[in-house]
């Protein structure tokens, strides 16, 4: 059963949730874009439904709610180690269908790929997902091609239509938020797009021979290895460890898990001065094939969810979706040379 709420009712629901949860959603940061006269939409804590941006894709993904950019794991002294505290409240996150699929990828990597990651798990298990209905597709989206344009893996789903909020309640524990309100009831289906301006085709015969293709060489000069594509991606999970010392003798401090990027210098440095994937073309090859080949072989579905944020953020206008569409020609080039 679903409900149709006005703005006031929706805010009352959020106020009730705020007693136990922090509420995160896409929010406009005026003047926070890449240029001084542009805005930025990214995830942040919100206090009212009016702050939530329903009609524009966020420039950055939701993942920093569950995987902070810099997260303290523990504090240490010469004689003791103390675990860093987690958030006191749980989290409610408003996300689109592609990001729900991305969350499933994060769960696979952090909870099912060997022993669960303790720090991710303690945040994830206190998280509620609110699906935001999509009634239009952004120019760089290709979720339909990746099969991530719809989902039923949510606690609540919200469509914003003509100033009203259609809410589908899937988590029965949340029924009490709505049942006592004098609101209209209806059968609600989350909105989703059925086509994108951008389409992607991944060849069925894709295999490891694609690493021999010359298609990767163009990225040696085009890519500036800034790593922005990794940082906005909802399924990129690479990190590094940093120790921050609190005194001069190095016997007191904290260990932090900090986002890293496979596209930047130093990521593949190893002991003895070695470094793998030195060229930007090699790094692009690794990123692409990890998303739609290596991971796919292990799980049966692609890591990439087609959100298109990497295409939108790249300062050199490198299109990841166009790169995927070059794979078929790249495979044919390799086959012709065998």
Please explain how this structure is put together.
There is one protein chain. The strands form 2 sheets. The chain has an 8-stranded mixed sheet. The protein has helices at residues 7-17, 97-111, 118-124, 143-146, 176-179, 218-222, 228-232, 280-299, 309-313, 320-325, 327-337; strands at 2-5, 21-29, 40-45, 70-76, 81-83, 90-95, 127-132, 156-161, 164-169, 184-186, 239-245, 253-259. The chain has 2 domains: 2-67 and 86-186, no CATH class; 208-236 and 262-337, no CATH class. Helix content is 28%, strand content 21%. The mean pLDDT is 94. β8 and β9 form a beta hairpin. It is of the alpha+beta class and 338 residues long. The chain is built from 11 helices and 12 strands. The radius of gyration is 22 Å and the shape is globular. Keywords: Iron, Iron-sulfur, Metal-binding. InterPro entries: 4Fe4S_Fe-S-bd, 4Fe4S_Fe_S_CS, Sulphite_reductase_A. This is Anaerobic sulfite reductase subunit AsrA. Residues 213-244, 295-323 form the 4Fe-4S ferredoxin-type domain.
Rg over C-alpha atoms, rounded to the nearest angstrom: 22 Å
Count of domain modules: 2
- Range of helix content: 25-40%
- Count of DSSP E strands? 12
Percentage of residues in DSSP E strands: 15-25%
Strand order of the largest sheet: 3-2-6-7-8-9-1-10
Q: Output mean pLDDT.
A: 94
Class from secondary-structure proportions? alpha+beta
Coarse shape: globular
Report how far the terminal alpha carbons are from each other: 59 Å
Ranges with pLDDT <50 over ≥5 residues? none
Task: Return the string of H and E elements.
Answer: EHEEEEEHHEHEEHEHHEEHHHH
């Amino acid at each position: 059963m679903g409900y149709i709420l006005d703005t006031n009712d929706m805010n009352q629901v959020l106020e009730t949730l705020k007693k136990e949860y922090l509420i995160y959603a896409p929010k406009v940061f005026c003047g926070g874009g890449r240029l001084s006269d542009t805005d930025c939409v990214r995830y942040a804590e919100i206090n009212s439904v009016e702050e939530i941006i329903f009609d524009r894709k966020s420039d950055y993904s939701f993942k920093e709610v569950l995987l902070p950019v810099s997260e303290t794991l523990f504090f240490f002294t010469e004689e003791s180690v103390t675990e860093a505290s987690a958030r006191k409240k749980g989290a409610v996150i408003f996300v689109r269908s592609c990001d729900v699929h991305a969350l499933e990828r994060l769960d696979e990597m952090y909870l099912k790929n060997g022993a669960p990651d303790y720090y991710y798990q303690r945040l994830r298990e206190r998280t509620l997902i609110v699906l935001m209905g999509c009634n239009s597709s952004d120019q760089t989206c290709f979720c339909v091609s990746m099969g991530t344009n719809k989902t039923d893996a949510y606690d609540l789903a919200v469509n914003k239509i003509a100033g009203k909020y259609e809410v589908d309640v899937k988590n029965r524990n949340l029924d009490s938020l709505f049942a006592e309100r004098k609101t209209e009831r209806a059968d609600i289906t989350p909105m989703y797009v059925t086509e994108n301006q951008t389409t992607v085709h991944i060849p069925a015969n894709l295999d490891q021979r694609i690493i021999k293709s010359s298609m990767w060489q163009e990225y040696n000069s085009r890519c500036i290895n800034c790593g922005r594509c990794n940082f906005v991606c909802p399924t990129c999970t690479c990190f590094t460890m940093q120790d921050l010392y609190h005194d001069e003798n190095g016997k007191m401090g904290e260990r932090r898990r900090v986002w890293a990027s496979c596209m930047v210098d130093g990521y593949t440095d190893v002991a003895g001065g070695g470094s793998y994937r030195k060229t930007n073309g090699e790094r692009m090859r690794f990123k692409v094939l990890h998303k739609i080949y290596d991971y796919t072989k292990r799980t049966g579905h692609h890591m990439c969810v087609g959100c298109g944020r990497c295409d939108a953020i790249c300062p050199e206008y490198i299109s990841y979706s166009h790169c995927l569409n070059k794979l078929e020609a790249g495979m044919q080039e390799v086959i012709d040379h065998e």
